[in-house]
Amino acid sequence: MLSEQEQADVLRPFQVLVRKYESELETAKESGDLKNEERDEKITQLEKGKIGVEEFIQGLTPRVKSPDAEFKELVDGLEADRATQSGIFNDAYALYNYKYTPGQKIEMNRRVIAVNVSRLISNTDMDVLQKQWSAILGMKNDKELEAAKKRFEDRLLEWEGLIAKKRNGSR
Predict the structure, then answer these.
(1) What are phi and psi for residue 127, nearest 5 degrees?
(2) CB–CB of 73/23 below 8 Å?
(3) Dihedral Cα 135, 91, 21, 136, nearest 10 deg
(4) Which end of the chain is more exposed for a tag (fewer CB within 10 A), N or C?
C-alpha cells in the first residue's frame, strides 16, 4: 500500500494539469484579443480537457489507494497517460494563440541580431526589419498577427539568404 505522500506524488502531475487548465480558462475568458467564436472554441476545448483530467484523477484515485499498489510500477505505468493528458492541454492552449512563445522570441531575436551584425544590409533596411519585429511583438493575438508573423519571417529569411549568398560569393 502506498503512503499518503506516495499517493499525493502519483496524483500531483494530474492535479497540476487541472490547475493549468483552470488558469488558462480564466485567461481565455478574460481575453479580448480573440474573436468571440475563437475564444468560445478555445474555452470549450479547455473545459473538455479539464473535465477529462478530473475524470482521469477520479479513476486513478482508487488504484492509488489500493493495498496492492506499488509506487514505482504505478508511476511508470502513468507516464504515457501524463504525456497524453499534457498533449491535450498543449493543443487546447495553442488553439488560436498566434503569439510567439518565449523560446521562439529568443530565436527570432537571435536571427535579427545575426542579420544586423552581418553589416551587409543598410541601416535603413535594418531599421525597417527591427520596426516590423517590434510591431509584431505589440500586436493583438488574432489572425492579423499570424499574417504579420508570416510576412516578417519571410522577409527575415530573404535577408538571411542574401547574406549567405554574399558571404559565399566572397569566398
Answers:
(1) -60, -40
(2) no
(3) 0
(4) C
Contact, 136 vs 109, CB < 8 A? no
Distance in angstroms (rounded) separating the CA atoms of residues 50 and 20: 9
CA gap 121, 103 in Å, rounded = 26
pLDDT tens string 102-156: 999 999 999 999 999 998 889 999 999 999 999 999 998 888 999 999 999 999 9
Q: What is the per-residue pLDDT across 19-63, written as a single tens digit (0 to 9) for each?
A: 999 999 998 898 877 788 888 999 999 999 999 999 999 999 999
Q: What angle do CA 151, 157, 160 make, to 5 degrees?
A: 145
Please, is 24 exposed, middle or buried when counting C-beta atoms within 10 Å of its C-beta (0-12, 13-18, 19+)? Answer: buried
Q: What residues contact 11, with CB distance under 8 A and at least 6 apart?
A: 57, 60, 61, 64
The grid coordinates of residue 90 equal 498543449
- What's the grid cell of residue 62? 482508487
Using CA atoms, how far apart are residues 95 and 101, in angstroms rounded to an integer? 13
Query: What is the spatial distance between Cα 79 and Cα 82, in angstroms, rounded to a whole number?
Result: 5
